[in-house]
Amino acid sequence: MNWDRIEGNWKQLKGKAKQQWGKLTDDQLDVIAGKRDQLLGKIQEQYGITKDEAEKQVEAFADRLDKIDPKSRH
User: Fold this and answer.
1) Residue 27 CB partners (closer than 8 Å, separation 6+)
2) Which residue from 44, 49, 63, 74 has the least number of CB within 10 angstroms?
3) Residue 38: how many other CB atoms lie within 10 Å
4) Are the CB atoms for 26 and 1 separated by under 8 Å?
5) Under a CB-based contact definition with an 8 Å cutoff, are residues 8 and 35 in contact?
6) What is the pLDDT of residue 1?
7) For residue 72, what is the DSSP state?
8) What is the pLDDT of residue 74?
9) What does the alpha-carbon distance between residue 35 and residue 7 come to, in Å, rounded to a whole number?
10) What is the mean pLDDT of each run of 10 residues along the chain (74 residues)?
11) How far apart are CA 47 and CA 72, in angstroms?
12) How far is 15 from 45, CA to CA, in rounded Å?
């Protein structure tokens, strides 16, 4: 899924992000507001992983969203 589309639909997708990264609080997800760089930073911080690993997880998250709604690809 195009990240601009994720950011634009963050309120609807926030629950899916919470399922993926349960250590992130609702407040953190609200502040992230779909911004990819902020999401990466919070994932790294909360899970103690590298930037590369966080990137892989975020890419996999976007790919799963594509499978849910394939029309969203751009």
Assistant:
1) none
2) 74
3) 14
4) no
5) no
6) 78
7) G
8) 44
9) 6
10) 91 95 97 97 98 97 83 49
11) 29
12) 20
Phi-psi region for residue 33, left (φ > 0), alpha (ψ -120 to 50) or beta? Answer: left
pTM across the whole model: 0.87
Token output for 1: 């899924």
Give the tokens for residue 49. Answer: 């992983």
Token output for 14 = 């926030």
In one-letter notation, the amino acid at residue 62 is A
Go through the chain and tell me how many residues it has. Answer: 74
At 50, list the tokens.
């590298």
What the block records as the tokens of 46 is 């909360």
In single-letter form, the type of residue at position 8 comes to G
Q: Provide the token pair at 54.
A: 């966080």
